[in-house]
Write a structure and sequence with these properties.
By secondary structure, this protein is an alpha+beta fold. It contains seven helices and 14 strands. The chain has two domains: 77-235, Alpha-D-Glucose-1,6-Bisphosphate, Chain A, domain 4 (2-Layer Sandwich); 240-356, TATA-Binding Protein (2-Layer Sandwich), CATH 3.30.310. The strands form two sheets. Strands 1, 2, 3, 4, 5, 6, 7 and 8 form an eight-stranded antiparallel sheet that branches. Strands 9-10-14-13-12-11 form a six-stranded antiparallel sheet.
């Protein structure tokens, strides 16, 4: 026989052997299952009975109908995984139940969880049906799973398994904490042995917790989408608008506290071609010279070029003032004349991005 064919044959046998291993059952010797209970120690007449220590007694009051030997299910217990933000489980319980606490104020927590449940079942191709009128209980249609054996044209269905679940919600009176429980309510398995509606208790618990963990993961995904939407909304929010200062002069109004904007203005000046020549911190005035920056070819290529503010190269004064928790930024020319609103409108797109410091961090 060809040596290569011989090695391939051994490999095929090894793979076949591995595939036949039952991961649910214990492995090894099971001689202990054949042992009979030892008789009580018989003490001959005339001898003292030795001392006994009850600490090492093994009670015979156990379930003798339970599995032994290879029939013992050795799989690790299933757990509910609270991976979503503000989700938690009650310690010491084996039920498939998880609590969610409110973390996004602008949404109704129960409606948010119901929508996550619906989306999960839609992705599974299973319909969700409400039970009752209060949106606190639901049931799924059948989940179907087939086990296929054989290869290519010789494939055949070895077994089919169908499961239905119920989902129940429980809300605290304040509505900021909602629990979700999952329960397996219908089961059907068909294989070469026939049909059965009975499922092992461990398999039942594992199926319930697996279903619940899928929903928790969907809730976590929806949380992340919501957080992304909020970040984009903040990124696109206009922190700078056109308005007037306390003297009714045209100015920019920045939704930033006066001291914070004052301390960050040098970053703006450095990026947009202004050079600070003097300042008056008590009156919050910056005296600057403006020279239009010359964006080099390399800056354009590498994307480091910044929009140029369309004003004359001259001296300017930037005067900051508090206005109801916001900050007005009034720009004067070298002679103390305030820049007209037409000029502020023309350069607004560049000034808005600059005074928002979107590109600074």
């Amino acid at each position: 026989m060809n040596r290569r064919i011989f090695y391939f044959s051994l490999l095929s046998l090894a793979v076949t052997g591995c595939g036949s291993i039952n991961n649910k059952s214990a492995m090894g010797g099971f001689e202990y299952a054949k042992e009979k209970e030892a008789k009580n120690l018989s003490i001959p007449e005339g001898l003292n009975k030795p001392k006994e220590n009850a600490k090492f007694f093994i009670s015979d009051d156990i379930n003798h109908q339970g599995p032994i030997g290879q029939n013992v299910d050795v799989r690790a217990p299933s757990l509910v995984l609270p991976v979503a933000s503000a989700s938690r489980v009650v310690q010491g319980t084996t039920t498939s139940k998880i609590w969610f606490d409110q973390i996004i104020e602008e949404i109704d927590l129960k409606d948010f969880l119901i929508e996550a449940l619906r989306e999960q079942l839609v992705s599974d191709g299973v319909e969700l049906n409400p039970i009752g009128q209060n949106d606190m209980a639901f049931e799924s249609d059948w989940y179907h799973k087939e086990k296929i054996s054989g290869y290519w044209l010789l494939e055949s269905v070895e077994s089919t398994e169908s499961i239905r679940y119920s989902y129940s919600f429980e809300a605290k009176p304040h509505g900021r904490s909602v629990a979700l429980s999952v329960k397996l309510i219908d089961y059907m398995r068909t294989d070469e042995k026939g049909a059965s509606k009975t499922i092992d208790l461990i398999d039942k618990q594992r199926a319930e917790m697996a279903m619940l963990n899928e929903i928790v993961a969907q809730v976590d995904f929806k949380y992340r989408l919501k957080q992304r939407e909020n970040r984009l909304m903040r990124a696109n929010q206009k922190f700078v608008t056109l308005g007037e200062n306390a003297e009714a002069e045209p100015a920019y109004i920045a939704e930033i506290e006066l001291e914070m904007l004052w301390s960050n203005m040098p970053l703006f000046f450095a990026d947009y071609g202004f050079e600070i020549t003097d300042l008056n911190e008590s009156k919050k005035i910056y005296f600057v010279d403006f020279v239009k920056p010359d964006n080099s070819l390399w800056a354009v290529i590498w994307g480091d070029d910044l929009p140029v503010i369309d004003v004359d190269e001259a001296q300017y004064q930037f005067v900051l003032a508090d206005i109801e928790g916001k900050t007005s930024v009034t720009i004067y020319d070298g002679e103390g004349n305030v820049l007209p609103v037409e000029t502020l409108e023309r350069i607004f797109p560049v000034m808005e991005a600059g005074l928002s410091f979107r590109d600074a961090f």
